[in-house]
Amino acid sequence: MSTVNDTKCKSAVFLLTGIPGQEDVHLWISIPFCFMYLISILGNSVILFIIKTDPSLHEPMYIFLSMLAVTDLGLSLATIPTILGIFLFNSREISFDACFARLFFIHSLQFIESSILLLMAFDRFVAICNPLRYVSILTQKRIAKLGFLFVLRGLAIVFPVPFLLKRFQYCRANVLSHSYCLHQDVIKMACSDITFNSIYGLVVTLLTVGLDSLLIFLSYVMILKAVLSIASQVECLRALNTCVSHFCAVLLFYTPEIGLSVLHRFGKGSSPLFQILLGYIYLLIPPLINPIVYSVKSKHLRERMIRVFIK
After folding, report:
1. How much helix, strand and coil, in percent to the nearest 5, is found in the chain?
2. Considering 52, 93, 193, 288, which has the largest number of Cβ atoms within 10 A of its Cβ?
3. Which residues form a coiled coil (predicted)?
4. Mean pLDDT per 10-residue segment, the chain (311 residues)
5. CA dihedral 310, 37, 124, 305 (to 10 degrees)
6. Which residue range forms the structural domain that includes residue 162?
7. Is this structure's pTM higher than 0.85?
């Protein structure tokens, strides 16, 4: 074994990163983050409240939307308080155990959100390609089973990661690239052989995010094929319009997700600032934008939201 592997850890903490070179204006930068946090929490909470209290919205599409809102709430609660601590109080230190715990929740919720987007794609596929069997296929019991299965998948595949990380020695500077903990970022700080962790992370990503995105793509191919066979242009546009919200959510989630994974693994010469900004987009924008997109595109949801705020 090399002498590096025998080196003792310099500290028992990681240092999180805000925006390098902008420390003097971190307090001002915290203002938009505070607004993003409040809007994310409020928007997703309102959607959950409306869907829960309105029996007419207890349909598959809105049940999946409520699952997405719960996941987005979890992501906001797991990330933004830490980010605000950095910008408001310069609280950059995080213990190894706390970092591994947050890493577990962030990655689990990301994989769960990917699964929910796949379920929503399946919902649109059935609604457009097989509308007569929509109610019989997507029963509440089947939705609950699928939801539980994908939540279990997200938790199970990330569960070993904190234990795999705890066995390493961290004797480098321990300065992470982001304001939160990510597996692909933490393993760079290890002084041990990280081959297994790196392969495990890549395989898990391909079997979750990669497979889900492929199945979503195939579902949209089949949806387009079915829609283009419709004789009426009005009916064709109406069918496509029901997919707009989901398509926006898919782009918001998978574009920065895939981009950040590629940068961490292959973008050694990429700009650190670009990597940091993409990291913020990766976790903060979907929980912020999803409630807005769905409330704008869904007439039923929009009307009930207006009633809530008018009252």
Report:
1. 80, 0, 20
2. 288
3. none
4. 44 86 87 93 93 89 94 93 90 92 95 96 93 92 94 95 91 84 90 90 92 96 88 79 91 91 76 86 92 85 77 61
5. 0
6. 23-310
7. yes
